[in-house]
Amino acid sequence: MTGATLEVRRIARRFQHIVAVDNISFVARAGHVTGLIGPNGSGKTTTMNLITGLYPTDAGSILLDDTTLTGLRPHRIAALGVARTFQNIRLLADQTVLSNVMLGTHRGHRQNLLAVLARWPGAAAEERALQARCRELLDEVGIGHLADAAAGDLSYGDRRRVEIARALASAPRLLLLDEPAAGMNHAEKARLGDLILQIRQSGITVLLIEHDIDLVSKVSDHVVVLNFGCEIAEGTPAEIRRDPAVIEAYLGREDA
Amino acid sequence: MTAAAAQFLASYSNIIDLCLLNALVAYGLYLALSANMFSLATGGFMALGAYCSVYLTMEMSQPFALAVLAGAVLGAAAATLIGLPVLRLRGDYFMLATFAFTEVIRVVALNWDDLTGGALGIVNIPRDTQTWHLALALVVVIYLVHTLRGSYLGRAIAAIKQDDVVAQTMGVDVFTVRLSLFVASGFICGAAGALAAHLNYFVGPGDFGLVRSVDALSYPILGGVNALAGPLVGAVFTTILPEALRFSSQLREILLGALVLAVVLYLPDGALSVLKPRRRAGNSGGGKATAAAPRVSP
Amino acid sequence: MSTFFQQVVNGISLGSTYAVFAMGCTLIFGVLNIVNMAQGALFMGGAYLGLEAARLGLPAPLALVVALLGGGVLGVLSDLIVFRTLRARGGHRWMGLVASLALARVMVGLAQEIFGTQVQRYPPSAFLSIAWEIGGVRIQLLQVVIVVVSVVLMALLAITLQRSSTGRAIRTVAFSEDVARIVGVPVGRTIMATFFLAGALAGAAGMLLGNLFNVVSPFMGDQMLVKGLTVIILGGLGNVPGAVAGGFLLGLIEVFSVAYVSSSFRDAIGFGLIFLILLVKPTGLFSRVEDRRA
Question: How far is C289 from chain A (nearest CA, A)?
Answer without folding.
Answer: 8
